[in-house]
Amino acid sequence: MQVRPDDSPAFSLRQKGGGKNVFTERSMRLIAFACALLSVVTTFGIIWVLLSQSIPFFRFVSPIDFLTGTEWRPTRDPVAFGVLPLVTGTLMITIGAGIVAVPLGLLSAIYLSEYAPKWARQILKPMLELLAGIPTVVYGYFGLFFVTPLLKPIFPDIKSSNGLAGAIVVGIMILPLVSSLCEDALRSVPKALREASFGVGATKTEVITRTVIPAALSGIMAAFILALSRALGETMAVALAAGSNPKLTFNPTESIQTMTAYIVSTAKGDAPYGTVKYDSLFAVGVTLFVFTLGMNYLANRLVRKFRQVYA
Predict the structure, then answer these.
(1) Structural domain boundaries of the chain?
(2) Sign for the pseudo-dihedral over CA of 253, 259, 262, 264
(3) Are the CB atoms for 148 and 167 separated by under 8 Å?
(4) Can you name the residues that pair with 81 across neighbouring β-strands?
(5) Which tens digits make up the pLDDT trace of 182-222?
(6) The domain at 72-306 falls in which architecture?
């Protein structure tokens, strides 16, 4: 006797559980949508809080004076709220951390992905990732009591808290992020591309530099931008290692202050609610948010520009 598809046991099971499956699919879709909506609402909530709370500050301080001023004195008379000292300090730490972390992270990723035997990867990769689990305050004291004394013989006039030590410790902090993301990007390159390069007589170094890295460039660039965004928002390590002196300087041996360090030092309760100093927290927060948003936008543009899709 010929069995129709409708009479098959599998069809009967699907028919009996069809209502439950439909309910499960709809539930999962609603949960996923709710999570996505929550992230969007949270982002807009943060924007609303920053903008609404910074309006009283900009009624007292002109936005032009805020963005172009070269002195930041929120407590001393006459008060001055020029954000450039905080911006230069933040950029000094971010760029310095990138100089430390980007080459070291990329080279370590190349070794782990292309050269390291399995036993070496099993040892080195967890050790690298261990750096990401160390509290940031420990990095701050590491920069203050270990990195700065090492720099003292090279720079005799270096301050106890300085931008150079802050950049070095933040660079060490973001090193695991750069290494891990770059390694993932390199290992995602199809093996056929490597074999094709070897087939035309390329050496191992040529395969890596001319085939693997260009093919993984979008992921590598995204890793760099994400790591720099992480350095941009670092707080405790910078507050301890780099200092709290809002000074407009490009000398990394001087004590400086970043936007995040100012926020954490002022938000401890010393600034009464409703004062200009209290409102300046949100103005600095808006500036930091714009910097982070710009870096994320740049990362998306770079990923789209250099992205390669393999069949």
Answers:
(1) 72-306
(2) negative
(3) no
(4) 72
(5) 988 898 888 888 888 888 888 888 888 888 888 888 888 88
(6) Orthogonal Bundle (1.10)
